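Friendly challenge for the regulars: who can give me the structure tokens for this chain first? No prize, just bragging rights.
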Amino acid sequence: MVLERLSKPASKKNSPRKILLKWLEKALVIKSFLKQIFVSKEIRVGLNSALTGNSGAGIQAGNTIYQQGSNATGDFVGSAGAASGDLTVTRAGLGYTPASGNRGLIGIALSTITGSGRDATANVHFDGGVAVAATIASGGEGYSVGDVLGISTNLGINARLTVASIGSTSEVIIDNVQGEFAVGTGKTLMYSTTTGGISSAITGAGGGVGANIPSGKITVMSDGLHVTVNHKNHGMHHQNNKVIISGVESDVPPTKLTAAYENDSTASLSIGSTSEFTTFENVSVASTNPGYIKIRNEIIKYTGFSGNTLTGITRQQDSTLSQTYASGDLVTKHELNGVSLRRINNTHNLGIVTTANPITLDSYKIKLDMGANGIGRSTTTVTDYPPRLFSKNTKSGGGVNISATQNMPFELITPVVQNVTVSGTTIDATLKTVSGTSLNDGSGEGSDTPFVVQASENISINQTNYLDSPRLIAARVNETNNSTITVLPGDRSFNMTLNLNTSDTRVSPVIDTERISAILTSNRVGKLISNFATDNRVGSLTDDPSSFQYISKENRLQTSATSIKIILDAHINEYSDLRAFYAISENEGFEPIFVPFPGFNNLNEKGQVISIDESDGRSDVFVPLSDASGFVSSDLQYKEYNFSINDLPAFKSFRIKLIGTSTNQAYAPRVTSLKVIALA
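First reply, four minutes later:
Bragging rights claimed.
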């Protein structure tokens, strides 16, 4: 932040400008409420020879899987294939016909709620309007025991079925993968038992040939390189951002020095136990694979071990400073989840992230570079040693001292300037900022390009000023890495100029430079859902990524109802949108599954629902958009919206949900006068 004024500030160590800059830079580094979630590499491998049973020929969960002719290892966690037998009815649903009596439907298509299965059909039996039994008709492929399925039919809603058994196994699910599995013949999959380490080849039905992986039959479920950082209001909505992460701590139990160690010593280092230090990043420590430890704030490299000593010491790694250490000081392995902390405590470029939709308002994903800040472990072949490196397990970690840089997004600014103005004097202000990015779909490729310098704008001090597009104060790492920002005064992304004016040379306005601040406000809105009809996340209380949500409490009726109507007034302009959902049950205290209202595109000329599967939560009729201009609620144009659903199964409990979206965070949808009516 740069504060400019007409008169030159007094030259002193802690000038007002320096104080402001120090405060702002601290605000742009968050040191709490951060959580890192590591996800291991998990793959599904197709087999050239089908196995029998749910887990194949004798393989048990937790067995180590390895492969002849490759350097790959992993843990067997399950299998997949064609679903078979009876399905478990875990949710009976509502409104299936007939409402009384029973009915059986043959070959109903099953939709996947959880898991990766596809193309199964089932024979489903209904009684009294609910699902009571189901049996697989066609098993499809890729299903695992425990997968949750839905029923694709317009005859009712919310039935849930669970896969109970697999007829034949066509895929093996391997987690915690290190190295690279290979396809082709002569590369038999093997497994070792959890006790005794007995190795056996994975065989086909009836003890057939060993299982190989055909070409194109390795499906990566998670790549073991991405880490989710939960970071509230981080303001980094575009892939052009960089983030500095520091303070991440080891998950390996520490040991202690058993002898004092001088600040200039490179002798062998005596510790309580080397049991956790003989390997680094899952490979034996050697000159070709050094290990790293941390004592206080110093990172130290070692290349060997002998007894309870670490040998081949090199001090002051990564620009850390050496100290003299006392016996009893903690020695920590500089590693988390099998990955060197030198690769984690680093500057990360969001532009190299390769997972889908990696950014939300309160989280982002980083991708670990296993080829940097250590020996190269990212480009090895299937036979090279050491093998390719991935996160060891799926876990959260990093300790309580994690720090991360952040941007400050805003669309409203209230400059707070303590001042005195007398007759004939005025103070006016101008603002020079850079663009931010509306969240949009979370892909990191929003419609707004960040860090573009905006034209100077006149603003009022001590008042709320509305901006017509997202802006941000960039973290220092983003300021220094963007040439557009370096041309601004002080190389800063935020500049506010205060002009002191007078019509009388004898008097002047006065500013208290110790009491200047700015209140920055940002709307928590984006558009992370692209298709409300098909995205199952909108039906959940917890999985919906949308930040703009209203969810009602459960409403209990004395008499059963069969219809719901929502009437509200809303301001919806060219950037924003609003969708409505309902959840119903006969029972109190139910776990809701929200269903979108039909929407005007899914109603025929008689107002009847064309297809439940096409319901997208829009209003009953098309309402022209309001004028996009204006920000103050009293100045905005509000229009009435109606959402209706009729002929529902009888219910006594219901909840509603509203989701607001916008492609421009400066223009959030506004809602007032909400009324909800349950009708018989």
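Residues 16-27 form the longest helix (12 residues). Residues 2-28+408-521 form one domain. Your move, everyone else.
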